[in-house]
Amino acid sequence: MAVPSPIVAGNWKMNGLKQSFEQIDAVSSFLSSKTKPTCRVLICPPFTLLNQFASLASDDLAIGAQDCHFNASGAHTGDISADMIADTGATFVIVGHSERRADHGESNELVSGKAVAAQSAGLNAIICIGETEDERDAGDTLSIVIGQLEGSVPASANASNTVVAYEPVWGIGTGRTPTIGDVATVHAAIRSALIKRFGEQGSTVPILYGGSVKPSNADELMHVENVDGALVGGASLKATDFDGIIDAYRK
Ligand code: PEP
To answer: What does the pLDDT read at residue 251?
Structure first.
């Protein structure tokens, strides 16, 4: 039976200038000089660096964007389409990150539209879901997460055009992570919901964990059942830290 192909993805958010090329260059060097990891490696820089970084894309290192518009082109000042992203040589795009849901009021429906646009452009859509601290404290984690999954993952999803990232909002950039047991419970629920909706395909859609992943906790988190990699924010900005997380897939 096919298994999900793990991914360690770095989300640089609104960080990085031209000089940051040295960090991705260092990630590339680690990948070519150290033991080949059993995961795919992806870096999602800001749009301003996408073209430059995509020139470094290789079989070992994929490049992705952090958002796209749901239309392929048109009068949308300041927006970037999935076709434009694909045109740079990038192969992934994050959609529905909790910071976009919060800062820009993005709904599940909008996120689903962006995922469809990404898939139509030949990109792999990383669809983010996750509960806030209040929702967790109210005991609503599973209903929120599965509701977001159902609303944000389009019917066109399959194992080669979609990745799901579970990111508890309260764990992003805070240094706090759920217990291993809680991560296992949420990922198992996501896996069941994917299989219920997509059958066999649902069993191979990668499910990433995101939220304060760092070299010191990556190994434990990446070995939880149904965790197929990580979406990493802060610790992806320095090549040595990011490589320390990739190490979880070098054993
Ligand atoms: C993220 O924003 O996707 C993220 C997981 O951030 P951090 O690793 O910094 O918590």
So the answer is: 76
Structure confidence at residue 61 (pLDDT): 97
**What pLDDT is stored for residue 2 in this prediction?**
86
Single out the residue of 1, 74, 60 nearest to residue 28, CA to CA: 60
What is the topology classification, in CATH, of domain 66-175+185-235? TIM Barrel (3.20.20)
Residue among 12, 172, 222 whose CB has most ligand 1 atoms within 8 A, to mutate = 172
Instruction: Say which of 69, 97, 131, 187 is annotated catalytic.
Output: 97
pLDDT at 151: 98
Q: Which residue, by CA, sits nearest to atom 3 of ligand 1?
A: 233
Specify whether the backbone of 169 is left (phi greater than 0), alpha (psi in -120 to 50) or beta.
alpha
CA distance 136 to 133: 5
* Confidence (pTM): 0.98
Q: What pLDDT score does 128 carry?
A: 99
Domain extent listing, the chain: 66-175+185-235
Tokens 């910071």, residue?
Answer: 99
CB-based contacts of 139, cutoff 8 Å, min separation 6: none
What's the rounded Cα separation, in Å, for the pair 88 and 52?
A: 9
Cβ contacts of 108 within 8 Å, gap of 6 or more: 96, 147, 148, 150, 151, 152
212 Cα to the center of ligand 1, angstroms: 6
DSSP secondary structure, 33-69, as one string = HSPPPSSEEEEE--HHHHHHHHTT--SSEEEEES--B
**From the alpha carbon of 172, which atom of ligand 1 is closest?**
10
Residues of the chain with pLDDT under 50: none
Residue 112 Cα to chain centre, angstroms: 15
